[in-house]
Amino acid sequence: MRFVLEPEQQDMADTLRAMFTAADVPAIARSWADGDAESWRKLWRSLADLGVTGVTLPEERGGLGLGPVELTLCLQECGYAGLPGPVIESLAFLPALLPDLIADTRVRTAVVERHVPHALDADLADEVYACGPGSSRLLPGAPSQRKGSFDAARRLFEVGDGSGEEIPGADFERAFDVAVLGCAAYLLGLGHRMLDLATEHVKQRQQFGRPVGEFQAVKHHLANALLKLEFTRPLVRGAALSAGTPHGGRDASAAKLAAADAAHLTSRIALQVHGAIGYTAEHDLHRHLTKTAALRQSWGTPAWHRRRIARTLTTDPDTPIGSP
């Protein structure tokens, strides 16, 4: 299996990272948390101009016609930047679910039976969907009630479960697996950003006249985080390469588990080396900490994915591990 990026894929990732850096995503996230979507939508339109909002959609529907590998690269960079909004829903889940979706600048969000009980940023979205194995519907009207969230930029809403427009031809299982893969990629990006923040912090902070990063114990903690993240990367890439195969769902679950565990470990280490300042909402680390905790439980809890993997291996022990 080849895990090295093609030059065009690396260029895509580099372009997105430069765009997010220039756009000042931390400031956009603060505005988004306050309900001001103007700067976020400006960035979203720029992503649409690059084709990111239709990265996996076929060219005849205005998309780039690319595959899951490119999708994971885009979502990994979104995670690295800590981009708020229904990114996984709009880029991964709904493009795979809706058979006639056209690439555009519309923002879409969804509630997903059992796994995503509240619609992310439903008040600022253009379309809200209610989806499950038996039925997927476009919901009419506005969200009913906002719910509390420990991540201020993850604005959760209850939406009505009344009648809506049924979506014919929706492939829920496939779309859910794509969203799980996208969530894994986003978590991987979050983890790498928290590690970079921690590394930069220990280079600058001094104790006993030396940078904290020179102490062996700190080096070991950061090395453990890097090791965990680097072992996650091939699992995410392998799940992208096996997407759509009979064992694609199991591989997506494995990638989500590994990414959630790696990001969680990295968040604890990053917070430990930052100290109390890492708790403050003004620090960039805080945004990534809260998103990691939320996404670790979203799109299937760790326990759910472990059961799924175990069930798959039990019922089909000859299934190959990874892409053929």
From TrEMBL:
<keyword id="KW-0560">Oxidoreductase</keyword>
<dbReference type="InterPro" id="IPR009100">
    <property type="entry name" value="AcylCoA_DH/oxidase_NM_dom_sf"/>
</dbReference>
<dbReference type="Pfam" id="PF02771">
    <property type="entry name" value="Acyl-CoA_dh_N"/>
</dbReference>
<dbReference type="InterPro" id="IPR009075">
    <property type="entry name" value="AcylCo_DH/oxidase_C"/>
</dbReference>
<dbReference type="InterPro" id="IPR037069">
    <property type="entry name" value="AcylCoA_DH/ox_N_sf"/>
</dbReference>
<keyword id="KW-0274">FAD</keyword>
<dbReference type="GO" id="GO:0003995">
    <property type="term" value="F:acyl-CoA dehydrogenase activity"/>
</dbReference>
<feature type="domain" description="Acyl-CoA dehydrogenase/oxidase C-terminal">
    <location>
        <begin position="174"/>
        <end position="313"/>
    </location>
</feature>
<comment type="similarity">
    <text>Belongs to the acyl-CoA dehydrogenase family.</text>
</comment>
<protein>
    <submittedName>
        <fullName>Acyl-CoA dehydrogenase</fullName>
    </submittedName>
</protein>
<keyword id="KW-0285">Flavoprotein</keyword>
<dbReference type="GO" id="GO:0050660">
    <property type="term" value="F:flavin adenine dinucleotide binding"/>
</dbReference>
<feature type="domain" description="Acyl-CoA dehydrogenase/oxidase N-terminal">
    <location>
        <begin position="7"/>
        <end position="84"/>
    </location>
</feature>
<dbReference type="Pfam" id="PF00441">
    <property type="entry name" value="Acyl-CoA_dh_1"/>
</dbReference>
<dbReference type="InterPro" id="IPR036250">
    <property type="entry name" value="AcylCo_DH-like_C"/>
</dbReference>
<dbReference type="InterPro" id="IPR013786">
    <property type="entry name" value="AcylCoA_DH/ox_N"/>
</dbReference>
